[in-house]
Amino acid sequence: MTDSATPLRTLIADDEPLAIERMQILCSNQPRLALVGTASDGEAAIRMAGVLDPDLIFLDIAMPGEDGMSVARQIAEDCAAKGKRPPGIVFVTAFEAFAVEAFDLSATDYLLKPVSEERLARAIDRVAQHRAQPPAPGGRAASGYAEEFWVPSRSSLVRIAARDIDRIDAERDYMRLSVGDRSYLIHQTITALEARLDPSIFIRLHRSVIVRRDRIAGLGHDRAGAWQAELVDGEVVRIGRTHLQAAKAMIGRATT
After folding, report:
1. How far apart are CA 240 and CA 42, in angstroms?
2. Among 9, 21, 111, 229, which residue has the fewest nearby CB atoms (within 10 Å)?
C-alpha cells in the first residue's frame, strides 16, 4: 500500500502527443504525483504498467489497437495473476458515453477533456483514499452491489451514492435517476441497472420503474382493480404483473 506521504507513481497513456504534454504539465503541479512514464498506445501502456508498477494510470479511451477499456481489463488481469493490487485507473477522455462501462471496470475516476487542475486534484484525492482502504473484489461493496454511480452533469461527471437514489425511470435508451429534486440521465438498460442495485434497498415495480423501498408509503388497488404503489411524495406507480409478487411480498401476501 502506498504511504499517504509518498507520491503516487503515475503513468500517462494517450495517443495524442499534445494531450500527453498537457497532462504532464498538470501532473507537474501536483506534489502528490511522481510521473514514471508515458505511453502512446494501449500495448505500450500494458507493457509499461507491468514493468513500472504504477500506483495511478491516467488512461485515454480512444487509442489505436488496444483501447483504454481493453487496457484496463488487461492490467487488472495481469495484477490478479501476480497477486498484486491493481493501479488506480482514471480515464481521461473527450467522451461522456463510456462512463458507465468505465466504472463497471472499477475505474477510480473519469475525467473529461480538457482537464482542469481542480478536477485533477479531486481525482487524485479519490485515488489516494481508495488506496488507503483494503481492496474490495471488483471494486464493489462486499455485497457485490454498486455503492455509487458517476453520471454526466453539464460538462462534468458527478458522484451519486446508490442509497440516495429515490427512483429510476426508463426513458427509451436512457435511465433517469431521481435524487431529491434533481435528476440525471445515464445510458444503460433498466435490466442491467437493476442487476447492479441491492434488492434489499430497491424494488422494480414496473418494466420502466425502480424505486427505493423506503419511498413506498403503501400498496393498494386503483378503481379498475389494478395494483399500484403510493410513494411518500404522493406519486402513484402502477405495479406490473411481472413484478406484482415481489411487491406483495413486502406486505407478506401471496399473488392471487
Report:
1. 46
2. 21
Enter the pTM of the model: 0.60
Bridge partners of residue 161, in order along the sequence = 148
Burial class (CB in 10 A: 0-12, 13-18, 19+), 39: buried
Comparing 223 with 205, the larger pLDDT belongs to: 205
**What is the tens place of the pLDDT at every residue in 142-160?**
456 888 887 877 666 777 8
Say if 8-139 and 165-249 have the same CATH topology: no
Residue 241 DSSP class: G
Q: What are the φ/ψ torsions at residue 130 (nearest 5 degrees)?
A: -65, -40
Element at 90 (helix H, strand E): strand 88-93
Q: What values do phi and psi take at 219, rounded to 5?
A: -120, 145
C-alpha cell belonging to residue 39: 505511453
What's the CA gap between 41 and 68, in Å, rounded?
Answer: 9
- Main-chain dihedrals φ then ψ at residue 203, nearest 5 degrees: -140, 140
pLDDT given at position 138: 42
C-alpha 211/C-alpha 80 separation (Å) is: 36
Q: What is the CATH number of domain 8-139?
A: 3.40.50.2300
**Model confidence band, residue 218 (pLDDT cutoffs 50, 70, 90):** very high
User: Among all chains, which residue has been given the C-alpha cell 480515464?
Assistant: 91
CA distances from 201 to 6, 122, 143, 213, 214 (A): 39, 29, 12, 6, 8
